[in-house]
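Re-run with default settings, no changes from the original entry. Doing this only to confirm the output is reproducible before filing.
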Amino acid sequence: MKKCGGGRAKSRKRCTHPCPCGYLGDPLHPCSCTPLMVQRYRSRISGPLLDRIDIHIEVPAVKYRELAERSEGESSGAIGSRVEQAREVQRERFRGTKVHSNAQMTPRFIKKFCEPDAAGSRLLELVTDRLGLSARSYSRILKVARTIADLAGSDSIREQHIAEAIQYRSLDRKTS
């Protein structure tokens, strides 16, 4: 794993490049790695360690035009408001327990609060079988999907929440 961001961060966060050269999946730079090189590189990170990380995504370089663009996106205040509403939903959901957020859910709470709709269940089954996800990865996807549903103001977990949560497990996917 290469340390990102130059100096040593207080939180000691590390990021993982997608491959030894760092360009796998980059639309502007060709990757010079073979599939075997990528597999060896990624195998240095243990599966059990990756399973313990809720979200892992690749963040591509941003073009100057996109950075300099003056268009208005969703404001930080609006995002903060949605996050606070989702936190309040979680506080209410777990009132009277030692659990304070979806990330802390035990298997019993996952069964109770993370039942996806029929389409979401089918998608999760397909992805779990195809990628050979561990039980821990499966649980993490459900917890993240519950949070995505909370942020969307949805009482139930729908297929689109499951699909988004799966997208945040990019390192579970096979290399190509």
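Residues 76-172 form one domain. The chain has a mean pLDDT of 83.
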